[in-house]
Amino acid sequence: MPPITYVFGHQRPDTDSICASLAYANLKRAAGEPGVIACRLGEVNKETQYALDYFNIDPPRLIKSVKPQVSDLNFNNNSKVYETDSVLKTMNLIINNPGRSVPVVDEDDKLIGIISLPDIIEAYTGSFRKDDLKKAETPYKNIIDILDARTMGHPQSDIVAGDVYANTELTEQSRLAPEDIVVVSVNSTLDKAFNSGARNIIISGVPIGYQVDVPDDFNGFIILSEASTFEVIRLLVQVVPVSAYVCHDNLEYFLTYETLDDVKKNMLDSSHDRFPVVDDEGTVLSSITKSSLLDYNRKKVILVDHNERTQSISGIEEAEITEVIDHHRIAEITTAAPLYLRIEPVGCTCTIITKMYHEKEIPIPRPIAGLLMSAILSDTLIFNSPTCTQADKDAVEELAEIAGVDPYIYGRDMIIAGSNLADMTPKEIIRTDRKIFTMGNYRVVISQINTGDYKGLFSLLDPLLSQMEADCINGGFDLAILIVSDVLIGGSELLVAGKARNLAKDAFGIEPGDISRFFPGMFSRKKQVVPPLMQAASS
After folding, report:
1. In degrees to the nearest 10, what's the CA dihedral of 192, 198, 199, 202?
2. 180 neighbors 202 (Cβ within 8 angstroms)
3. In whole angstroms, what is the distance from residue 411 CA to residue 409 CA?
């Protein structure tokens, strides 16, 4: 499986974030990196869904965190025993295994329990009873393996079904059941064992190459071992399967999707030293100890349409950022290693990605061209935003031809489809495209929604302002601003809430008694809203 790299935009993704992740992941895969996966950090808004549906593209995978998980560990211990494995095999594995315990699995490698040294010590300290192998449903395979034996014939079943007798216990008149086992030395009289009625004979002390004289009428199963009779009896104590000694209670294990932070906490509270790792289906993949948590691979990520930690995914500081493709100001993202950083002063990330397709001489498929065009039209508000550049317009002209659409008609329909305010709750409107900024000593949250339903805004002013005030209190924000942009009207309405309304007054002249104000030609949060606020905050 190729190494995975996740491509994603900012939280509460807009059309550029979603389309950029899809288009760039497609570019990377086409360039020979099959493990690059497009992702998103939030729900797809209605405008973006319109574009995805129009060009028949599924949304990216939703992810919530890139914190290190159990699946990121470098597994180096896959020791395990099957429930039918012998006590001796298990003992040897435990002795040579750090942590002094191993997981026990069924025939499908599914976890059924854990076994440790104290669990099986009874098999060595207790006396051997003739029905022990039968009660433990011991496989004949265990006997053959441990005695390193040769065989003649076949047992009636794979599992021991009878009692075990030493030849010295028998008399000429002894009659045993066919499923019983007799242990006899090659130097003893074998007739007594063969005539006992038992159909399973273990003959000890048989050198390799020695021919045992077997009666013609004996049609049972014979096991030939070089070991002495004493050694055979001693080893038979250890051929019983471990299933009888497995601990099923208080089973502690970890799933691959658990974070290492959670694993550390659980390990500290546990009395165990080693823990099985299982996948979603319960299959054992490895075992880990506390020291295993030091050896893991950071998740590789590519950021598109953002480069600020506050706008990115949970755990970003613990991931390896390999690339950043963006059109915003450079913020406080730091990396432990060099990376590919591409930031250009254009109106949309997808304009940059369009250039990169050309630079790598990779053709742009129609669905991808449609997504790239949709993002540029959205971010530039069909070229009305002051952030729009000639590069954005040139890209749309090319992409629209590939996609086979009129960009102006398509762009207007897309924006209107995603902005019927009457169908949205105040929370949905505010969080459609929301970004958080630190401006000096202030925490500011700025939301923006593009709409073709400007009149519908005024019936929602009071509930919108109430929600914004609540967000300030619950989120610890000093100022909340909502930008409602309408390309058909030709500007944006700014709604302001929070205790730092003085910033809005200094930046935009919105008086404390005003709840909103319309600004003709204002469409860009990045160029027309954030800079005046930052200047006001710094002064």
Report:
1. -60
2. no
3. 6
**Euclidean distance between CA atoms 527 and 487, whole angstroms:** 17
Let me know: does 164 contact 183? Beta carbons within 8 Å: yes
Question: Nearest CA to 387 among 280, 495, 249, 523?
Answer: 523
Structure tokens at 52: 């995805």
> Could you give phi then psi for residue 126, rounded to 5 degrees?
-80, 160
**pLDDT at residue 533 in the model:** 94
Query: In DSSP terms, which residues pair with 204 in a beta bridge?
Result: 185
User: E strand or H helix at 104, and its extent?
Assistant: strand 101-105
Structure tokens at 511: 């008086």
Distance CA 507, CA 504 (A): 5
Closest CA to 493 of 453, 537, 533: 453
Structure tokens at 46: 């209605």
Tokens of 329: 């100001």
Cα 71-74-75 angle, rounded to 5 deg: 85
Are residues 81 and 90 in contact, defined by beta-carbon separation less than 8 angstroms? Answer: yes
* Cα–Cα distance, 93 to 72 (Å, whole number): 26
Residue written as token pair 């706008």: 311
pLDDT of residue 98: 67
Distances (CA, A) of 476 to 160, 442, 494: 71, 10, 21
Q: At what angle do helices 407-417 and 366-379 cross, to 10 degrees?
A: 70
| Global pTM exceeds 0.85 | no
Model confidence pLDDT, tens digit, residues 336-348? 888 999 999 999 9
What lies within 8 Å, CB to CB, of 223 at 6+ separation is 143, 144, 147, 149, 150, 151, 200, 201, 202, 203
Statement: residue 77 has pLDDT above 90: no
Distance, CA of 518 to CA of 485 (rounded, Å):
9
E-state strands within 376-508: 434-439, 442-450, 479-486, 491-497
C-beta of residue 449 within 8 angstroms of C-beta of residue 428 = no
